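Hi R.,

As promised, here are both runs. First protein below:
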Amino acid sequence: MRQYLLAVQFDESAPPEPEEEVRAMMARTGKVTDEMKAAGSWVFVGGLQHSDASTVVRPANGQTAITDGPFAETKEQLGGFWVIQVEDLDQALAWAEKCASACGQPIEVRPFDDGSRRR
């Protein structure tokens, strides 16, 4: 079994969705999460606040610098994620398809480093 991150890529420059659409999307993603739990694939799920709520801590010359805002200035940011545990990439991609359909956003699928691949 391997763990994968299913990362929701959210376009923060797009106008906000109407509240009723947000509620419907949350209901759809909740159903997918429930399916993951029933299948034994679910590990964790989390939604994130807008990137302007973030703080970045960077190492610099033996010290750290703390700045407000996202790590990278880009219109697409990480909006939320699922952590799943499945047999292989094909199963992870099948869950990612369901997640993308449920939330209406692109999903980046990335395996966790199990220590077998070193740089």
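And here is the second one, sequence first, then its structure tokens:
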Amino acid sequence: MLPVGPAVKVTIHINRDTAAGAGFLQEELLKLLQESDVGIGGATVLHAYAGFGSNRRLHKADEGDVTGLHLPTLLYFIDTPEKVEVILPLLLEMVTDGLVEAHPTQILKSVAGREKVLA
């Protein structure tokens, strides 16, 4: 659980089909964040329906061919400035095609309660 106070939100913009050593980059990045000794509290990967990058070519999920697999993907996480400072060089080395951004933010509340299931 994140402490209340200053934090950093890191967002990594890549393509869904960007390759990495053993698979896709999104999976390798998520694995690094999850298994790292740094102790990143959590991360999220979001897949877009459509988008375009610096080449200005529109990619859409319903295109049905290889172009449909070249969709924008966002991976983001929020953690303390100290943890981000440690993990960021590893992430920057792994991202060979994409955009990495970081923004200061403020944790106002961070709780880990039991999930309530309605019957």
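A quick note on the second one: The chain has three helices and six strands. Let me know what you think.

Best,
J.
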